[in-house]
UniProtKB/TrEMBL annotation:
Lineage of origin: Eukaryota, Fungi, Dikarya, Basidiomycota, Agaricomycotina
Gene Ontology molecular function terms on file: kinase activity
GO cellular component entries: mitochondrion
UniProt name for this protein: Altered inheritance of mitochondria protein 9, mitochondrial
Protein keywords: Kinase, Mitochondrion, Transferase, Transit peptide
Species in which this protein is naturally found: Armillaria borealis
Length: 522
């Protein structure tokens, strides 16, 4: 393989309309292609690899299809450094997939053929080699199927969510094979109940440090800190706040132009983190069943679900278990991305029902008809999911009845990104949680009327700004980080330059300038 072809495998596809060099460097992932092929050949009893093709990539991985001389095929995943701790992430991802196959159902996760979490192995990078599944993703037909076809997919999604509730763990963290955690953690039980700890899996697996990248990104990976496992929700949230304080004290990212915060924000961020620590012991819901640590899939999007066929879209396998964590049931009940409806074209009425289509729908232009019918269908699916879940996964329904469940579940994220994304989201969460008019949480913290008024004004300004950014993204045809396909780069760059000349800086800074905020670069 030529050096140019090899570099193409290492490098990310596409371009970024701002911070391009930094984004590409963060995703550049060198590895020994020949060594990976040799290991893959052994895993499928082949002599030679006849084809090696990059078939997909995201910010965290590159995915390759390997074909062999014995007609076998396999898939290889190479993680990028954006993951944070690629060693622990790989260990946990493999253990999680095997646990799902052992304890839930074998079809729920792909079979791992070979793996190594070290960067000093012959491949010179962590890797996972898995079975190849030729099934199409649900994404290929999700917007077109209807009726019973939709029901096939939704029932499989709900069944996976229900399956997660059957195994309650002893701690909060991430799953590992027993031999991959410290001796001290090996001595701790896997499950919460004595009965479950008699299962074979109780000897095979353990809970170890959390692999969520927010605890490991950038220079954070070098900090010695409490990354779990933790015994309860209060310990988890408190540890996140203490970790954020430590990063701030050490100056991690405080000079980065890619962050939204400035040095003037430091005192407020410290105050917010102290408020978070103060309120942490009061956030647990009174229903003890919602506190048991459960596993959940980290990214239930349609692209991560392989189906039998577009005609019968029952889910045959769930992909991408990287970054999975074990957390309180209360915090593991998010609506799958493909079923959540937040576009606002239609909204549920006051009784939670889907409104009818406009009476003149048939008289509208064809493209508008298709647009409205699609959004009406997506809202109807969301409503059906909400209606069915109390029977299919009652634990989720119980969690949703608790005030501010979603905000509380996202609190660790807001804490760990309070410098990168600015204090607004963390402040907003704490204000809502502690609002005496709408919260069940004892008021361990408070904000003055003046603080709340100033926050509301800042929040309205951010919403206006975000709306402008979303219009820019739609107009240019890129993703939220400014990524476009290579062949569209020059066209999109010219479009960005045109918008930049007309941008109203009173709304906020133009987002697509080098050095601007970026989710992945801070």
């Amino acid at each position: 393989m030529s050096s140019l072809a090899t570099r193409t495998l290492y490098s990310p596809s596409g371009r970024w309309l701002y911070n391009d060099a930094e984004q590409r460097a963060a995703r550049y992932t060198p590895f020994d292609v020949d060594a990976l092929q040799e290991i893959a050949c052994k895993s499928v009893d082949a002599r030679h690899c006849t084809a090696f093709t990059k078939i997909a990539e995201g910010s965290y991985n590159k995915i390759f299809l390997l074909e062999f001389d014995n007609a076998s095929r396999a898939v290889a995943r190479i993680p990028s450094s954006i993951v944070g701790n690629t060693h622990l992430s790989t260990c946990s991802e493999v253990a999680t997939m095997q646990f799902v196959r052992d304890e839930l159902e074998s079809r729920y996760a792909p079979k791992v053929l070979a793996w190594n979490s070290s960067s000093s192995n012959p491949v010179a990078s962590p890797f996972i080699i898995m079975e190849y599944l030729p099934n199409p993703p649900l994404q290929s037909c999700w917007y077109h199927i209807k009726g019973a076809q939709t029901g096939h997919a939704m029932s499989d999604i709900c069944w996976l969510q229900h399956s997660f509730t059957l195994r309650k763990f002893s701690q909060i963290g991430s799953l590992y094979f027993k031999e991959d955690v410290s001796p001290e953690l090996q001595d701790r039980p896997l499950y919460l109940s004595d009965e479950d700890n008699q299962r074979p899996s109780a000897e095979k697996y353990r809970i170890g440090p959390i692999v969520d990248r927010e605890w490991w990104r950038g220079e954070r990976r070098n900090i010695q800190a409490d990354r779990g496992p933790w015994p309860d929700m209060a310990s988890y949230i408190t540890a996140a706040a203490r970790f954020a304080q430590e990063c701030l004290s050490l100056g991690i990212d405080t000079n980065s132009s890619f962050a939204r915060s400035s040095h003037e924000d430091v005192p407020e961020i410290h105050r917010l983190l102290e408020k978070c620590i103060a309120i942490a012991p009061h956030l647990a819901p009174p229903d003890s069943s919602l506190l048991s640590p459960l596993l959940a899939h980290p990214d239930m999007s349609a692209s991560n679900m392989l189906i039998e066929s577009p005609e019968k879209p029952s889910v045959k396998c769930f992909l991408d278990w990287q970054g999975a964590i074990v957390a309180p049931a209360f915090m593991q009940t998010s609506i799958p991305a493909l079923l959540a409806y937040t576009d606002g074209v239609f909204e549920l009425d006051s009784e939670g029902c889907v409104p009818p289509l406009p009476e003149d729908i048939d008289q509208r232009p064809t493209d508008e008809q298709e647009y409205l019918r699609l959004h009406h269908k997506l809202l109807s699916r969301y409503r059906f999911y909400l209606a069915q879940l109390p029977q299919l996964v009652p634990l989720h329904a119980a969690a949703w009845r608790y005030p501010h469940q979603e905000i509380t579940s996202d609190l660790p994220l807001y804490v760990l990104r309070c410098w990168a994304d600015g204090p607004l989201k963390l402040r907003d969460a704490l204000m809502k949680i502690s609002d005496p008019d709408s919260s069940a949480v004892p008021c361990a913290i408070d904000f003055s009327p003046a603080e709340r008024e100033a926050h509301d004004e800042e929040l309205r300004a951010r919403v206006r700004y975000q709306g402008m950014v979303e219009k820019l993204v739609e107009y240019v045809g890129c993703d939220g980080q400014g990524w476009v396909e290579e062949e569209r780069f020059e066209e999109a760059r010219r479009a960005v330059e045109g918008v930049a000349r007309q941008w109203d800086d009173a709304v906020g800074p133009f987002p697509f300038r080098d050095g601007s905020w970026s989710f992945f670069l801070n």
